[in-house]
Amino acid sequence: MTAEPILALREVTMTFPVRRGWLSRPAVLRAVAGVTLDVRPGEVLGIVGESGCGKTTLGRCIVGVHPPTSGRILLRPRDGGPLRDITRRDRALQAELARDIRMIFQDPFGSLNPRLTVFDIVAEPLRVHGEGGDRAALEDRVAAMLEKVGLRPDAMRRYPHAFSGGQRQRIGIARALILGPRIVVADEAVSALDVSVRAQILNLLQDLREEMGLTILFIGHDLGVVRAFCDRVAVMYCGELVEVAPAEELFRAPAHPYTEVLLSAVPEPDPRLRGQKRRIVLQGEVPDPLARPSGCVFHPRCPAAFDRCRNEAPELTSRGDGRAAACWRHEVVRSAA
Question: What is the model's pTM?
Answer without folding.
Answer: 0.90
